[in-house]
Amino acid sequence: MVYVHVKAPDVKGHDNDPFEKAKAIEMFDQMVGLLLSSYLKMCIWL
């Protein structure tokens, strides 16, 4: 299990900007997906 705290959604939540908060979470989710995909491709070659 990994816990990551990303400040961008937190800030947007405090700014009462739910759409930007959702956008920040979606962008983080995409980034994690790209990192995981790259990692899995790398593991195939090991």
TrEMBL record:
SUPFAM superfamilies: Alkaline phosphatase-like
Entries under InterPro entries matching the protein: Alkaline_phosphatase_core_sf (IPR017850), Metalloenzyme (IPR006124)
Keyword Transcription set for record: no
Keywords from the UniProt entry: Isomerase
Protein name: 2,3-bisphosphoglycerate-independent phosphoglycerate mutase
Source organism phylogeny: Bacteria, Bacillati, Bacillota, Bacilli, Bacillales
Boundaries of every Metalloenzyme domain copy: 2-39
Pfam families in the record: Metalloenzyme
Native species: Peribacillus huizhouensis
Keyword Isomerase: yes
Stretches that traverse the bilayer: none
